[in-house]
Amino acid sequence: MIQTRISAILIAATLTASAFLAFPGQAFAAALSTPKVFATNDEVSASSTTYIFSFKTASAGSIKRVEVTAPSGYGVGGATFTGSSILLQLGTLSVSGQTMRLTLPVAIPVPVGTQLTLQVSGINNPSSVGPHTFDFATKNNAGTTIDSGSASITLTDSSVGPSSIGTDQIQDGAITFDKLAADVLSYITGLIDNLRVELLALIDAEAAARMAADTQLQSSIDAEAAARAQGDINTLSSAMQYTDSSVTNEAAARAAADQTLQSNIDSEAAARAAADANLQDQIDDLTARVEALEGDEPEPTTISIADFASTEGDAGTKNFQFLVLRSGDLSGTSTVDYGTADGTVEAGSPPPATEPSDYAADTDTLTFLSGDDSILVSIQVVGDMLLESNERFFVNLSNCVGCTITDAQAEGIIQNDE
Predict the structure, then answer these.
(1) Residue 293: is its pLDDT beyond 70?
(2) Using an 8 Å Cβ cutoff, are 134 and 155 in contact?
(3) Do 138 and 63 meet the contact criterion of CB atoms below 8 Å apart?
(4) Topology of domain 2-175, per CATH?
(5) What's the CATH fold of domain 302-415?
(6) Which pLDDT tens digit goes with each residue over 156-215?
(7) Residue 127 has what DSSP assignment?
(8) Which residue did the predictor score with more confidence, 337 or 66?
(9) Which CA distances in Å does 36 have to 99, 115, 128, 249, 308?
(10) Among 41-45, 127-131, 198-202, 310-314, which stretch is predicted with the lowest mean pLDDT?
């Protein structure tokens, strides 16, 4: 009985969770709104480049997969989705041909106009300038397209260097998957608590029923033994008229009856023991599943900054783009200061670059809002026509509030192009 009841509880929980995730009024195959594509390095033939894909949903639907198809010539075999979104950590990435596919653990209901931003690293740029068109699509559990669209990017010649990317273009009030994931996980947590309460009550009721059944069985055994004893007394009282053969036959019959009764008692006891063992196995399995669902605590919020290298140009200034990444728990606000510094003399490293002759000094404070996972810092490098070695300067992070710095220094390499 308890196995049937447990199955009923699990089926009810599954149906309730499915009803929560269902999204009414779903329309399919609408055009995505304002699809955009950006690259942290838009030079031709650049390797291991980070791309940011941004778009707004045009239809309400439950998104299970997000697909980005790169044009021919792009190398996406080593592509990885980056960032610290809960769903990105739980989701799985697969690459088929030129299509990069992020599959989420559950279909997430998304209303019209939700802006989604994905960051993909490890893409190799083609050797042609373009323009190059990327195709986007969101799909539901059945694999049916909800929204689709495309956006183009034109690369720059390697002699020109990468273009500046405005941080506001990437951030632009994006609503990431984190808020939606938090709603779903909060609901499932409540569902688990309710399931635990009902299961414990069911176990107590089953234990009481088992105890009552055992008591009734023992009463039946005692009554049967008393009846047997009384029957033996009655038989002895009238045994005087029996022959020795009759007495022997009666004793044998009684012994056979007693053996049958004991066999029945042993079988019932064995069946009870097997049922109790099966019940304990089910309780242990369900307890393990509940503990697994209660699982992961949010990871701590961390901040790091990536190195950057490029040519300086022959004149004017050129922006060096340093990517500051926030990982772990993105639900709150974090701030961190940055500042430039001249390079130092070290064996095996380029000689130091100095400001203002090689670059423009800069300090500021970066603010990550809830859901933000990256910001680009632009440092101006001064171009010249002097024949000189590669030079380096630093961008340092400090005073992190609401986070922990895991990589506090980025190295900017100014490559000589004379």
Answers:
(1) no
(2) no
(3) yes
(4) Immunoglobulin-like (2.60.40)
(5) Immunoglobulin-like (2.60.40)
(6) 886 555 654 544 444 433 334 444 445 545 555 665 677 678 778 887 898 899 989 888
(7) S
(8) 337
(9) 17, 11, 20, 99, 24
(10) 198-202
pLDDT at 214: 86
What are the tens digits of pLDDT across the range 217-230? 898 888 888 888 78
Listed by start position, the domains of the chain span 2-175, 186-294, 302-415
CA–CA gap between residue 361 and residue 394 (Å, rounded): 10
Using CA atoms, how far apart are residues 157 and 224, in angstroms rounded to an integer?
100
- Nearest to 322, CA basis, from 374, 391, 361: 374
3-state SS string for 179-238: HHHHHHHHHHHHHHHHHHHHHHHHHHHHHHHHHHHHHHHHHHHHHHHHHHHHHHHHHHHC
Identify the helix (H) or strand (E) that includes residue 22: none
Enter the tokens of residue 104.
Answer: 């989420």
Q: pTM to 2 decimals? A: 0.39
Q: Extract the tokens encoding 267.
A: 């079988």
Q: Report how far Cα 374 is from the mean position of its chain's Cα atoms.
A: 19
**Band of residue 300 on the pLDDT scale cut at 50, 70, 90:** very high
| Whole-number Cα distances in Å, 194 to 183, 204, 284, 368, 416 | 17, 16, 18, 36, 66
Query: 291, exposed or middle or buried, with CB in 10 Å at 0-12, 13-18, 19+?
Result: exposed
Cα(323)–Cα(308) distance, rounded to whole angstroms?
Answer: 8
The answer to whether 291 and 317 are in contact (CB under 8 A) is no
Q: Which residues of 228-245 are buried (b: 16+ CB within 10 A; e: fewer)?
A: eeeeeeeeeeeeeeeeee
**Helix, strand, coil shares of the chain as percentages rounded to 5?**
35, 35, 30
Rounded CA-CA distance 5/77 in Å is 48
Indicate the DSSP class of residue 163: P
